[in-house]
Amino acid sequence: MWSRNSKRISKALLSGALALFCATQAQALSCLPMGPGDVYRIVSKSEDPFVIIEGRVTFDEALLPTYSEAAPQATKEPVEIPAQVSGLMLGDRMFDQPVEGEITLEAHCLGPWCGALVSDARYLFFARQQEGRVVAVVEPCGGFFFDAEDGSAGDTVLQCHRGRACPSKLPDTLEGAQQVPALD
Predict the structure, then answer these.
(1) What distance in Å separates the CA atoms of residue 27 and residue 21, rounded to the nearest whole number?
(2) Does residue 23 lie within any of the structural domains?
(3) H or E stretch including 20?
(4) How far apart are CA 16 and CA 178, in angstroms?
(5) Residues 6 or more apart from 81 whose CB is under 8 A from it?
(6) Would you indicate the residue range of the signal peptide (predicted)?
(7) End-to-end CA distance of the chain
(8) Could you tell me if 117 and 64 are in contact, meaning their C-beta atoms sit under 8 angstroms apart?
(9) pLDDT at 183 over 70
(10) How many Å separate Cα 108 from the centre of its chain?
(11) Could you give the CA distance from residue 182 to residue 184 in angstroms, rounded to a whole number?
């Protein structure tokens, strides 16, 4: 169900993209304004399998990681959360492949900032195929998930997928952005 007409995304590219998506300035997390076109361009150049899905994602929100001053190391590793998705996967020309089944949300934290989603909301998201399952990364800057209620994220991806203009929300320069500090 997940491999038909899929593309590939590498773990190295995914890690690099996560680092690029988030930058810190002063004491607060500042995220680069990535759009669905930006993520589409990144994953379309990769070699590992991925899928693009527009649909409703349902999961137990209580399983999302939250930072605690009392246990700061507790959010250092990603948390895997089982989820259900119902929607359409991007095929050769459009979102035309029905999808209904289980996926894994891989929720990450960067220091005190943790990725979050709303259960039972409609998203357009990019997920990688890994060891026979579909894994969607949830990180503090949003990176791989976009609100799909109004359809604009899907329209952007379709433009990119069909070789038309692929809009970017990234700034022209990264002037002033800083590397995310290493967490020990």
Answers:
(1) 17
(2) yes
(3) helix 11-21
(4) 14
(5) 59, 60, 63, 64, 104, 105, 106, 107
(6) 1-28
(7) 39
(8) yes
(9) no
(10) 11
(11) 6
Kindly state whether residue 166 falls inside one of the protein's structural domains.
Answer: no
CA nearest to 65, candidates 16, 13, 137: 137
More confident residue, 175 or 89: 89
**168 — phi, psi (to 5°)?**
-115, 145
- Let me know if residue 177 belongs to a domain: no
DSSP 8-class letter at 164: S
- Alpha-carbon gap, residue 57 to 47, rounded angstroms: 26
The residue ranking higher by pLDDT, 60 or 178, is 60
- Alpha carbons within 13 angstroms on the beta-carbon side of residue 3 total 5
Q: pLDDT value at position 81?
A: 97
**Closest to 105 in 3D by CA, of 67, 59, 68, 74:** 59
Query: When comparing pLDDT for 153 and 177, which is higher?
Result: 153
Q: What is the CA radius of gyration of the chain?
A: 16
Of residues 74 and 118, which shows the higher confidence score? 118
pLDDT band for position 127 (50/70/90)? very high
Q: Is 135 exposed, middle or buried (0-12, 13-18, 19+ CB in 10 A)?
A: middle
3-class DSSP string for 51-99: EEEEEEEEECHHHCCCCCCCCHHHHCCCEEEEEEEEEEEECCCCEEEEE
Domain annotation covers residue 2? no
